[in-house]
Amino acid sequence: MAKKSSRRNFIRNTAMAGMGLTIVPGLVMGKKFGYTAPSDKLNIAGIGIGGMGFANLKNMESENIVGLCDVDWKYSARVFDHFPNAKKYKDYRRMYDELGKSIDAVVVATADHAHAMIAADAITLGKHTYVQKPLTHSVYESRLLNKLAAKYNVATSMGNQGSSGEGVRQICEYIWNGGIGVVKRVDCFTDRPIWPQGLSRPEGNGTVPADLDWDLFIGPAAMRPYNPLYTPWNWRGWWDFGTGALGDMACHILHPVFKALELGHPTKVQGSSTMLLTECAPNAEMVRYVFPQRKSSHKVKLPEVEVFWYDGGIKPVRPEGMPTGKDLNDNGGACIFYGSKDTLICGCYGMNPWLISGKSLDAPKTLRRVTTSHEMDWVRACKESAANRVPTASPFSEAGPLNEMVVMGVLAVRLQELNRELLWDGENMQFTNISDDDKIQIIIKDGFKIHDGHPTFDKSKTDPISAKQFAQELIKHTYRSGWTLPEMPR
């Protein structure tokens, strides 16, 4: 009965969309008489529910959670118990086939490498889409989701919840009003990783837990033997599945920088790190981005700006005037905007912005305030017609370009063996100063031993590989057989 009701709601909503409404207003259905119409609620499916996906779905409990999908049913057992009426799946494609006509919206919170395919398939089915950060695993995938969302007119949001917070709005409005003057440098850092990184590829364990579908977890990546080091959760440090500390946290920490300084594509980037291995993100990284002069839509000029990123416990130099004993780290990281008039500092997620001068951040309020949770603001956007929709705080039109910048920084780290500043053509998604003859070698194992009382390394490396081909593969992945993306819209 529930399935028939959901299908009926989908047909009704589709008909109303033709009249400029996505969801029938409660007043029309008699809500004022104490009746809550079924059409007041979205039918939402969650994919990748064991971790942040569960937190996201709990923030949407006012809606109908109709489908739950995860490759690891042991890790997700508590979620299944929490939403007992939702249908359970391991393969999102089967869920789309069976529930596609009754689903209004999809929440994606899998490992990074699977985000793009799951979200792209949802969008092409006309489903509103919420994707955890980082939006995608590659630059090309970010561009694709941005363009698909525009083509299909669906409501979208990335899961960088700080974008809905008051701090980001204060930062943007104060900088746009000229409060700290012209900004030519920003330093950012996170205290992550808090999961294993800097590891060589482990040997296969061979015993896949009964509740885990290893083939589906691998998804579009190259197959490898099972090892418990990969999942649950620790996948984030492995290049094939995650993007390390930079990919995990920069969508939170760099978002106010990207928005306030109206950044677009960087033109130059350079990365460095602790020992770089083929399989796993390094323990600590530094990335320098250079963005060209931009045309400002506000009061302040936007000249060329350098943005520096640090992770793995490395912090930038403390700014002049920073109170002695005050920790720069606020909720997992911080940003330091160096302006010609003042220095503005905020924590992770744009939280708790303050000025070195001690002044208050008073500026005209020009940005919309989000009065619900980040997730429920997306639900609100889903229920509005495409013609009259107020975008979320992190729609793919903004999250896509932001994520391109983030994962392009990952490329800079992985290409550091070229020993040069890399020049980036953002429009065409390519580095312009890597030649056909450039080769790199990457460490497979460090071969660390104590020999005659002295630490020694007998490093094994890959054979020389084409840096250009390696970069192109990182920008646009080649997927395992059976996994494909939709074509890039023109």
UniProtKB/TrEMBL annotation:
Residues 206-262 form the Gfo/Idh/MocA-like oxidoreductase bacterial type C-terminal domain. Gene3D superfamilies: Dihydrodipicolinate Reductase, domain 2 (3.30.360.10), NAD(P)-binding Rossmann-like Domain (3.40.50.720). This is Gfo/Idh/MocA family oxidoreductase. SUPFAM superfamilies: Glyceraldehyde-3-phosphate dehydrogenase-like, C-terminal domain, NAD(P)-binding Rossmann-fold domains. It comes from Danxiaibacter flavus. PANTHER family: BCDNA.GH03377 (PTHR43818), NADH-DEPENDENT DEHYDROGENASE-RELATED (PTHR43818:SF10). Residues 43-159 form the Gfo/Idh/MocA-like oxidoreductase N-terminal domain. It comes from the Bacteria. InterPro entries: Gfo/Idh/MocA-like_OxRdtase_N (IPR000683), Gfo/Idh/MocA_oxidrdct_glycsds (IPR050463), Gfo/Idh/MocA_OxRdtase_bact_C (IPR043906), NAD(P)-bd_dom_sf (IPR036291). It holds the Pfam family GFO_IDH_MocA_C2.
